Amino acid sequence: MTEPVTKSVDAAPKAGVQATRVGRPHASWALPGVLFFMFFAVAPMALAVYLSFTEWNGLGDPRFVGLDNWQNLVGDPRLTQSLTVTVLMTVVSWAFQTVIALLLGVWAAGKQRNRAILSAVFFVPFLLSSTAIALLFFALLDPNFGVIKGDTLGTTSGAFLAIIFVGGWQFIPFHTLIYQGGARQIPEVLYQAAAIDGAGRVRQFFSITLPQLRHTMAMSSVLMVVGSLTYFETVLILTQGGPGTDTAILPYLMYEAGFKSYDFGYASAVATFLVVAATGLSLLMVRITGFGSMRSVREGM
Amino acid sequence: MTTVSPHKTAPAKGRSRAKRSNPVAGVASFVWLLIVIIPIYAMITTSLAGPEEAAGRNALEPPKNPTLDNYGLVLESGFPHYLLNTVLAALGVVAIVVVLSVPLSYVAVRNRGFWSGGAFRLFLLGVAIPAQAVVVPLYLMITKLEIYDSLWAIVLPTAAFAMPVSVLILTGTLRDISEESYEAMSLDGASPTRMLFQLVIPLSKGGISTVVIYSALQAWNGFLFPLIFTQSEEPRVLTLGLYNYVSQFGVNIPALLASVVLSGVPIFVVYLVARRALVSGMMGVGGK
Amino acid sequence: MESYSRRWFLGVSGATMLTAGLTACGSSDSDSGKSGGQLTAFVWGDDAAKIQEDAVRKFNASSAAKKTGGTIKLQRIPGSDYPAKLRTAMGSPSAPDLFFNWGGGSIKAYVDADQLIDLHDIIESTPALKNGFLPSIIQSGALEGRPYGIPMRGMQPVLLFFNKKVFKDAGLEPPTSWTQLLDINKKFKSRGIQPFALGGADKWTELMWVSYLVDRIGGPEVFRKIQGGDASAWGDPAVLRAAEEIKSLVDDEAFGKGFSSVQYNNGGASTLLAKGKAAMHLMGSWEYPTQLGKFKDFAENDLGWVAFPAYDGGAGDIKNVVGNPTNYWSVSARTKNREAAIEFLKTCASEEYTKALIANGDIPTTANAGALLEDSPNPEFAKFQYELVQNAPAFTLSWDQAVKPDWSAPMLTEIDKLFLGQSSPKEFVTALKGLK
């Protein structure tokens, strides 16, 4: 809040140098929203931390057991495996989705009619819910009665790639749209200048399009990373964490510990870990993307 | 209203470049087109096949004796009821999110106090927190609140977790309202309340519609909350209904796929009617 | 401002309607739990649940329902989620009044939390219940000698089902010994038929193989020690031997290549057997009603069954049975209408209900069942099953229900890893010995 403002990306034009005091609502206006969010989102996080120190099977009241769950968690090979799978899945699906969405988005930014029609078609998968999409591929991949017969989901790499693919199939339309919006805002004059300097198409892409899209890419990446942490439905429907525990990502590990083994204390420890990891990630992203500085931009108005 | 003239920054748009052809990306788009279309095509043709024909057929051939029986079966298996629940839940989520985040974002943008800054930071942090992570404590809270197995159990937490991104979108839009606009209104002696209704809301329609779409999609997509917080038929939403069809229809793949097709129809209709709004709304989620 | 206020009005009225809608949904539901009269009952939502649906419909129209002022609302819960749904509902204020379970370990947590009605006194004072069932069956579901459940489905021994037509075409007979089984596998494989259907996506289907092999190799005592809670008992050589046999079956592709993504709950494995893609299927006796529901012709003409084969040189008797005694209805201690619940339980002992189960291919555990078996759609199957259970020297309860609840999920995961080849038989045994 205190950092001096040096950049003004696309802030509204400034009227007076010093800000006036008009149109300033009382802070209490924010109260209902804040309280609601605190109650249904922040309080559960605190409760998750508390529950991680208890033993609770879902019946009766949680019983305090100190660090037991955490000790189990640290020594648990399932956590190591789950963490590896989660990170791997996040990275691979980020790469897969970014490359395709970037390419398609920049292409679709053109104004040709065929591109407009194709972008309309590209968008269709996004209209289905994640559950519906997971079911669609579950049915198509059924080893005996599906359309693509064979043991896709029964092998470790097959199941892993299927989840990546299904995630991409669902979310690439959305990210394409983001890149399309971003690409349309790149000033044409940059390309004209580059063309005068004799830069080729590939060069233009790497020295103009990509740098100009860095904010778009940051935003899209945040959403992708957060999105891939929540591939829960896909995993539950397609593989149930299998084969074995090879696709049991963290949210699935938590679900299984809680709602299959009824070890809600342990599940809460996993949940707390997930919240801490996600918060760390979110802080990092905020720093990189400069969301936080948007406020500072305004401060200088 | 006429005294207000919002200043809008017109984004620079490509002109000549926009018309250039691009063979590499063109080929990639064609490949992706196939990837998008083939599963959808296989889904629709299979959903029209009879149960006997389905097992052995090649998915890329149209069914020999197309039938709508599968769709009939889905419609008789509670589908309309689930859809209604989903619509109700989505409306509930949208209403809560809009009513709470508009004033909140207004404060975050216009009030420089310590508390409003803190509130904004709080929501900023919430952006990356997956709702899945807190399902266990939420389950405990929901049973204590005695709303287990009702639509409220889905709506309230879904709305709470849709708020961070909504606030982010709205603050982004609200910042574009110029200082003169507020000043002009204050000359008329407008209170912050009047400004909210006559200036802030009308000028942030774009942001609000993005928030509406975003939060409606959260409700539309929600699966884990309904799975854990409801169990009976009455509050069952579409995603959970679809999931239950897996056991109910078993290896009757055509019926399962018919339910998937049907689940896409309502939003497809929305897409056809309001494609522009939907697409620009989704672009809005990405920010500028 | 005109248009604006109109929109505002629409918004407000929309919000009002919405609130009304949400509340209506919420409240109508909580009414059903609280009105005292209506009871909810959770049942495992497979094909056989239609028997319970009929029974509930008849009960709701009966004079007993009127007298006690209670009607029952049955909720079918899809199979794979049943235990989790039950647990979350039981932990909430809207717990079911009656629910389907497997007795024993499956209800231990609820008994420990004082959530179930101890039915001992009720059974003793109600002749219809006391004399209505085979006494041993009520006891099998009991915990520390106290009964918490009334039998509501058939006996469930695990049998080796086979497709008669596939066997006939190959000129083969179903196996009675392990050597024969291996020999038959080879012959089916050369004909391009998968020897066994296995719904490996549901881990308990794999457990059946482990349980029977351990029984046939080492006898029922091996598991009896494990069940006692002694993790070192997993070190018995029979467990390792069984794991090795499973590994060689898997390596031999006896279950097909894709078994780990085939489900039982959605009917995948049963369909493989019915369509002749697989020759045999090790499954609980409910496979018969399942097949009858899905593939009537096949169930009536081509579905065969035998006991699990003997293991050459093994200590276990071929007559030993693995499975579940039956399923039970238990009553929540929080029910608002205990009388109605008990009246409903009485109907489970009735001749009418028994006949309905028999007609569905089940072997009820009611005292009068023996005399009615002739009415079964397949008396031959009914008698086979009845006699198998009657004559079994040992009846081993499904391991996942029998071991202490903390072991159940990790045990199933280890078994799954063994089947998937992710752990070797030795690693499998080591992992199980490490259970706490």
UniProtKB/TrEMBL annotation, chain A:
Name of the featured protein: Sugar ABC transporter permease
Main localisation: membrane
Domain ABC transmembrane type-1: 83-285
InterPro entries per the UniProt record, alphabetical: ABC_transporter_permease, MetI-like, MetI-like_sf
TM region(s), chain numbering: 29-53, 83-109, 116-141, 153-172, 222-244, 264-286
Family indicated by similarity: Belongs to the binding-protein-dependent transport system permease family.
Location(s) in or outside the cell: Cell membrane
UniProt KW keywords: Cell membrane, Membrane, Transmembrane, Transmembrane helix, Transport
Source organism (scientific name): Streptomyces chilikensis
CDD domains in alphabetical order: TM_PBP2
Topological relation to the membrane, as annotated: Multi-pass membrane protein
From TrEMBL, chain C:
Domain of life: Bacteria
Pfam families noted in UniProt: SBP_bac_1 (PF01547)
PANTHER family, per database record: ARABINOSE-BINDING PROTEIN-RELATED, BLR3389 PROTEIN
Protein's name in the database: Extracellular solute-binding protein
